[in-house]
Amino acid sequence: MNNTPEIAQLGAEVLRQPAQAIDNFNSPQFQTLISNMQQLMEQGNGVGIAAPQIGESWQVIIIASRPTARYPKAPEMPATLMVNPQFEILDASLIKDWEGCLSVPGIRALVPRYRKIKVSYQNQQGQACEMVLDDFPARVFQHEFDHLNGMVYLDRVETNTDIVAESEFFKRIAA
Ligand code: ZN
Q1: Which residues are placed with Cβ below 5 angstroms of ligand 1, an ion?
Q2: What is the torsional sign of CA 90, 128, 36, 5?
Q3: Residue 130 belongs to a domain
Q4: Bridge-partner residues for 165, per DSSP?
Q5: CB neighbours of residue 165 within 10 Å
Q6: Domain holding 84: CATH number?
Q7: CA of 105 to the centre of ligand 1 (A)
Q8: 144 lies in some domain
Q9: pLDDT of residue 25
Q10: Which pTM does this prediction carry?
Q11: Phi and psi (nearest 5°) for 112?
């Protein structure tokens, strides 16, 4: 694993590959991966990050909805590390709302996501956990989960007119 990772940008192969499951929770590489993900997510004012975004093709995500410069209206939740995550749909209503991605700088788009889901995952120690997520945190999870399957949010946009420059987003939409 890299010593000085950077955020993988759209077009990087690692963002288009399925990530591998973690089975060794005690390796120093796993601990380094987690601290690099935390650091880059915070530096980028992200509300979530997936391991492939730092060039590591592993099934590890962090969900950390909170108000940041990039997402001023995001609700506060404790940052949660999820290893080998899966989810089931609790409310199949598809809600369209704005997303961005540290791997797709300068762009925002409207993306349909399930409103409510039940997530199962392993924590940093490998223990099985479950969590029900709705609205924005459910959206963040589904966005990061896609990264583990080689997808980015632009793949889910319904029409190109739902894609805008971030500068316009902050001028007209988030204002
Ligand atoms: Zn992303």
Answers
A1: 101
A2: negative
A3: yes
A4: 107
A5: 11
A6: 3.90.45.10
A7: 10
A8: yes
A9: 96
A10: 0.94
A11: -75, 130
Domain assignment of residue 155, given as a range: 13-174
pLDDT score, position 101: 96
* Confidence band, pLDDT 50/70/90 cuts, at residue 69: confident
116 within some domain: yes
6, 13, 144, 158: the catalytic one is 144
**CB–CB of 137/143 below 8 Å?**
no
Of 116, 111, 112, 108, whose CA–CA distance to 138 is shortest? Answer: 116
Residues in the chain: 175
* Residue 3: band (very low, low, confident or very high) from pLDDT cuts 50, 70, 90: low
Domain count along the chain: 1
**Ligand 1 centroid to residue 77 C-alpha, Å:** 18
Would residue 1 count as lying in a domain?
Answer: no
Q: State the DSSP code for 12.
A: -
Whether 13 is catalytic = no
Three-state SS for 21-88 is: CCCCCCCHHHHHHHHHHHHHHHHCCCCEEEHHHHCCCECEEEECCCCCCCCCCCCCCCCEEEEEEEEE
